[in-house]
Amino acid sequence: MSLPYPLPPSTAWDAELIRRYDVSGPRYTSYPTALSFAEFGPEEFTTALERGNASRRPLSLYVHIPFCRRICFYCACNKIATKNTDLARPYLTRLDREMALTSRHLDTSRPVSQLHWGGGTPTFLTLDQMSELIDRLDARFGLSGDRDRDYAIEIDPREADVLTLRHLQALGFNRLSLGVQDLDPRVQKAINRVQPRVLTESLIDEAARLGFHSLNLDLIYGLPLQTRASFAATLEQVIELAPARLSIFNYAHLPERFAPQRRIAAADLPGAEEKLGILQDTIERLQDAGYVHIGMDHFARPEDSLAVAQRQGSLQRNFQGYSSHADSDLVGLGVSAISRVDDVYAQNPTALGDYEAALDAGHLATVKGLRLSFDDRLRRHAIERLMCDMALDLGALGEAFGVDAEAYLSDALARLAPALADGLIIRRGPRLEVTAAGRLLIRHLAMAFDAHLPGQGGSRYSRVL
């Protein structure tokens, strides 16, 4: 079904209003967020895997490849810098062990509708290692050949070429995500990621020739030496390349948490006004070029599956951001990977040694997680629909959970009162609708529904914009 309200053609800009709401807060790739995870063992996770079989939901697999050949200074990912691809061999062995232990508790006749390799840099692997990993995944879970599958991989254009893309297509991948960040050579040098446009352009051309369903480019605003003019030049080139999707992430400078960021001089970062100007220009230019602002940092062409899913009301958020494949159980494999199965989140250790030791001892590496309460599940649904549909029907939410949603969420509605007064959200009976200005601050609006947030401390999160 189509959304019963029009999406805004442009974003309303009020700098003073935005400054008031630009606080630190979660991105809500999960609710509750990972900061709420507690001690959680393999037995609890395997029970969740078995319980989830009754749903017959499709499976979504995420594989974390932590290796990179070089470190980008902005990076906040869980990664290991090395140029030695032999180090991937023992890691692939441990991954296979994890797959074997996981698949024992899964009904593997459930279709694997979604597959995502992230990192690190998955294309750190040799072509033979990629083939080996796909073979092991297929043997353990049974991969799909369905045309509607969503099999994606993150690619560093500096570590891939046209032969890589042809190999990935042969392995069954049909969607690519290329890391670009910025096309300005000065910015690239400042973040230790020198990547001439020709590298990206050649891969985009080959992906189109090979018939990949969708291609995403990642950009980051707020990087050192960026200005409105320099990022506008990057956007102009990106629009010429015409990717189906774009992710425009906000750089969060947290050098106290992420050591590589200590190589970036705070004085080189664009100021708050310049950064907001970059974001304003970005949204307006992309919308003028025909892209749909899906929400937060995601843009897509109207015919792309993300935009279609949003129009149909089936868009979902997971640990990779927005997803067009709703209602699947996500199994995360590899160091630091997080699973979302039935009513449980389960996370592997972030230290490679701990991950290896657990699997060498013959059991899954799960160390943290959470089983959601009724309150968690209801609030998760409310946050997800608000962030995906840019609206929330309290009547439908109450029906789904058997409660008076307006009374149950009276605390959240009270916290939304300033946003209602400021025109970020409007109320039409039981329906909350996000306005053009509110769309920009959707993370802040979602925070009103978060019952875990008060005790977590905002400094643990990046700023909303």
TrEMBL record:
Cell compartments where the protein resides: Cytoplasm
GO terms under biological process: protoporphyrinogen IX biosynthetic process
GO MF annotation list: 4 iron, 4 sulfur cluster binding; coproporphyrinogen dehydrogenase activity; coproporphyrinogen oxidase activity; metal ion binding
Top-level taxon of origin: Bacteria
GO cellular component: cytoplasm
Radical SAM core domain mapped to chain residues: 53-289
Primary site of residence: cytoplasm
Keyword Transferase set for record: no
Pathway the protein takes part in: Porphyrin-containing compound metabolism; protoporphyrin-IX biosynthesis; protoporphyrinogen-IX from coproporphyrinogen-III (AdoMet route): step 1/1
Keyword hit for Iron: yes
UniProt xrefs under NCBIfam families: hemN
Protein name per UniProt: Coproporphyrinogen-III oxidase
Organism: Bisbaumannia pacifica
Lineage, opening ranks: Bacteria, Pseudomonadati, Pseudomonadota, Gammaproteobacteria, Oceanospirillales
